[in-house]
Specification:
The chain has seven helices and eight strands, in the order ααβββαββααβααββ. The protein has a five-stranded antiparallel beta sheet with strand order 1-2-3-5-4. It has a three-stranded antiparallel beta sheet with strand order 6-8-7. The radius of gyration is 26 Å and the shape is globular. The protein folds into two domains: 137 residues, Yope Regulator, Chain: A; 59 residues, Arc Repressor Mutant, subunit A (Orthogonal Bundle), CATH 1.10.10. The N terminus is likely disordered.
């Protein structure tokens, strides 16, 4: 149909409706695109951060748009992620790495499942990259007013309330492991002649941190494992402790950079 004729027909219909006392049809609202939706949700995250005392949210935002924050002993982040063509609000907070002792993993998972069943909240507890997380994922199109703030508060309050408890119960080991016989290196001495004893755990953290620091573009957990002789659990523990201390941060799933 020619554009001019279509305009005349629409105008005539509007006149007929007006004569009959019926309201004219409303022009359908413009549907926001993904970029607009993402900006709107990020603005809500920033608004929440300002309300809780972050004067300038850009100071806690990385180049991928993740906003980082802390509540008590829990560290978390919030941002917009894309899956296929849909956008989602993602809020997550690490709780603890999986224990190195296999005898502790089963009771930990059982307790996590029981907590999930009883928590009256948006946030849920799960496992990702050998780390226990509290997280919530919501489709942006389904969010209502104040949902962003509620999701952040839910995740952070749960993480802060359970992290110390779970770490105390499952962060250690329930039995001693048989260590292979190794030739012990000579202990270095300080200038004063006093023997210096290096903490092996600190050595792992230092090695992992130095490698991450030397890769400003980011490095994956898989690459860190290839460049060191540490096991997956050792690496997960090191990444968790470095993240919690603020020395490193994840820029995307499994990729880390130094702060």
């Amino acid at each position: 149909m020619p554009e001019k004729l279509e305009s005349i027909i629409i105008s005539k219909r509007s006149e007929d409706l007006a004569t009959a006392g019926a309201p004219a049809p409303q022009k359908p609202a413009e549907i926001p695109n993904n970029s607009q939706l993402k900006s709107a949700v990020e603005a809500q995250i920033d608004g929440f951060l300002i309300k809780v005392g972050v004067a300038d949210p850009t100071t806690v935002t990385d180049e991928l748009g993740w906003r980082f924050f802390r509540l008590g002993s829990a560290n978390g982040r919030a941002g917009v992620v894309k899956s296929e063509e849909d956008l989602f609000l993602r809020v997550e907070a690490p709780v603890m790495p999986l224990p190195s002792d296999k005898d502790l993993i089963l009771p930990l998972m059982r307790e996590v499942l029981e907590l999930n069943l009883t928590i009256p909240s948006e946030g849920k507890i799960g496992i990702m990259d050998e780390t226990v997380f509290v997280a919530v994922t919501r489709r942006i199109e389904e969010l209502h007013e104040d949902d962003v703030a509620l999701c952040i508060h839910s995740v952070m309050s749960i993480a802060d309330s359970i992290d110390d408890i779970l770490i105390k119960k499952y962060g250690g080991t329930s039995k001693k492991r048989n260590q292979p016989n190794k030739v012990k290196p000579e202990k270095p001495e300080s200038d004063s002649g006093t023997t210096v004893i290096d903490d092996p755990k600190e050595g792992v953290l230092k090695t992992v941190f130095e490698i991450i620091k030397s890769n400003p573009e980011g490095i994956s957990k898989e690459m860190l494992l290839k460049r060191t002789e540490f096991g997956p659990r050792q690496m997960s523990n090191a990444l968790y402790k470095l993240s919690k201390s603020g020395k490193i941060k994840p820029v995307e799933r499994g990729i880390y950079i130094a702060n």
